[in-house]
Design goal:
This protein has 8 helices and 7 strands, in the order ααβββββββαααααα. The chain is an alpha+beta fold. A hairpin with a 4-residue loop joins strand 2 and strand 3.
Amino acid sequence: MRNKVFFSLAELNVYIIEQLKEHHQRPFQKKDYSRFECFIKREQPLLQPLPAEKYCISHVVKSKVQRNYHITLDEDWHHYSVPFSFIGKTVNVIYDTDTVEIYYEHRRIALHVRSFKPHDFTTLKEHMPESHQRYSEQKGWTAVYFLEQAGKVGPSTHLYIQGVLKARRFAEQSYNGCLGILRLSKAYTPARVEAACKRALTGQCYSYTTINNILINNLDTIEPEQLFLFDMPQHTNLRGPEAYN
C-alpha cells in the first residue's frame, strides 16, 4: 500500500479489507494451514452469541447502612433499603443506569430498580423490622385515619394530606409527616393550617416542612397575588384600524 494514493477514507478501507482477506488466506510459514482455516476449525466453534442487551458500565461504591436500614447513593442522593439486620454494616453498592445491587461479604442482600429522584426512598417492606411494620397498626395509623382527621380541619388540608400520602411508595413512610401537619393545627389554629394547605396546593411539594414554613413566615395570612392582563394605555399617537382603510 505504500506506493498507492487514496482519495477518501472509504476507498482506503475497501482496499484494506481486500488485503486482509488475502492475508488471512495465505498459509503460515512452515505450516499447511492459514489463519482463516485456523479460525474455522478451532475458534469459531467456541464462539457464543452476542448478548441481547448492550453492555452497560457499572460503578462500585462503599456505603454504610444507616439506622433507618437504608443506604444512600450519593450520586443521586437517593436512599435504598436493605434488610434491617445489616444496620451499621459497610456494604458494596454496584449500580448502573437501571439497577442498584447491594452486597455484604460478596453476598447480594438487596436489588432495586434505580431511581434518580433526589432525597427520596426506595423501600421493600420485607426489609423493615417487624416492629416497624406493626408500629403504625398499633397506633391506629392508616391512610384512612389521616384523611379523616384532615377532613375535620378543612377540604384543602384533606387534599394536601392526600398528596403527602401519595408522595411515598409506602404510605407508612409519610405517616410522621401527616401527623406533624395535623399537630400544627394545635400549635397555630385549624383555620391557619387550612389556609396554609390551600396556598401549598398551588405548588407540587407535599411535606410537613412546606406547611411549617408557610406558617412560620405567616404566608398563610397574605392574599395570593392576582395577575392582571396588561392593558395598552390610551394615547393620542395610537391609531385605530380606521387609519389603515
